[in-house]
Each structure stands twice: as C-alpha cells, then as structure tokens.
Design a protein that fits this description.
This protein has 209 residues and is mostly helical. Helices cover 79% and strands 0% of the residues.
Length: 209
C-alpha cells in the first residue's frame, strides 16, 4: 500500500514511530498538498458565482493548476520514501577493505543525489502553489479569504521543511560543487517564496481585522 493510501490516523502513527519513512520529506509533501488544496477550495467556492463572473476564467485556470499541484505533491510523498530506502541500505554497506570503502562511497553519493530530487521537486511545487495563492487572494471569494491565508502558510511550511531535507543530504555529499549547486537552488526558492508567502498571509490577516 502506498503511504498516501493510508488513513490520516495511520500516517501520523507511522510518522511518530521508528520507521524510516515517512519522514520530514513526505510530511512536507503532504502539508504542501493540503495547502494547495485550500487555495483550490477557495477557487471552487468562487467559480460559478455571478459576483465573480469577470474572473471566472482565471479562477478555473487556477483550479486546474492547483489540482495538478495536489496530485504531484501527493505522489512526492511516496517518491520521497522510495528514494530514501536505498540510502538507508547504503549506510549499512561493509567498509572493511579499501575496495568496500570505495564502493560504499560511490553508492552513498548516488543515493544522496537521488534523495535530493524529491525535496527539490516538493519545493518547486510549493513555490507554484504560493504563486497561485496570490491570485486566489486577489480574485477569490471574500467569504473564504482566511483559507487562502491558511493554505499559503502550509505551502510555506512545506517549502521550508523540504529545504531541510535537501540540506541534510547535500551536507553528506563528497562532491561539494554539486552540493553547493543544489543548496543555491534551494536557497533561491526559499528567499523569494517565503517572502511572497508572508506577504500574502499579512494581506489576508489585514483584511480580517
């Protein structure tokens, strides 16, 4: 059974256990999917309303994008777990001889690179979802504006969480140039989109005063 096919209760129970997966990466992907879905909900409540007829096409396009974000992020919950399994095994490889040490180093480096793929993808999807929330905040129904604020903060949390999963893997890499390339890519997304998420949240909060 895929992780995402479990009940919410089962997911949380396994997350709290000693099991290696799901972990922070999978949890971040799930939180991101929930955040994207909250924006989508605002769009669903807006679509078809006469008061918002002039933004109907924009809302429908946003809803289609959000649906894609949700599906991609849920898939990344499982993808993150799949890439961690080989790394977990690699830590247990023998290292008594120089040949074994070299082989372990090679396998570890390969696994570490693969383990960065899912969290980076999670970050990218969260950035797109945050951008969508900016539009939902501008064009979505006012009766659900609080959900835009909740959704964008969830996406920000997922973005930040996934970045830590990138960093813990790049920290262990031998190829420091490659590691720094990934770190810079993650940092660029963090710098731009955490600020954008904060601005959206503050705008929503101000409208609720």
């Amino acid at each position: 059974m895929k992780i995402t096919e479990q009940s919410c209760e089962a997911f949380v129970e396994v997350l709290a256990s000693k099991e290696p997966v799901p972990g922070g990466g999978g949890a971040s992907a799930l939180v991101g999917a929930v955040g994207a879905a909250l924006g989508h909900m605002v769009g669903s409540l807006t679509a078809g309303k006469k008061k918002y007829a002039d933004v109907q096409d924009d809302i429908l396009q946003l809803n289609a994008k959000s649906d894609s974000f949700e599906k991609d992020l849920l898939a990344l919950v499982d993808r993150d777990a799949e890439t961690f399994a080989p790394l977990s095994r690699a830590y247990g490889l023998p290292k008594e001889t120089s040949e074994q040490q070299a082989e372990k180093a090679r396998v570890m480096e390969k696994c570490l690179r693969e383990c960065c793929e899912a969290p980076l993808a999670i970050m990218e999807k969260c950035c797109e979802a945050i951008a969508a929330h900016a539009e939902y905040a501008q064009k979505g129904t006012a009766i659900a504006i609080s959900d835009v604020g909740v959704g964008v903060i969830f996406c920000k949390a997922a973005l930040m969480g996934a970045s830590l999963n990138v960093r813990i893997n790049t920290k262990a890499m031998s190829d420091r140039d490659y590691a720094e390339t990934l770190n810079q890519k993650a940092a660029a997304m963090l710098n731009e989109y955490t600020a954008r998420a904060d601005a959206i949240y503050e705008d929503v909060a101000a409208r609720l005063k």
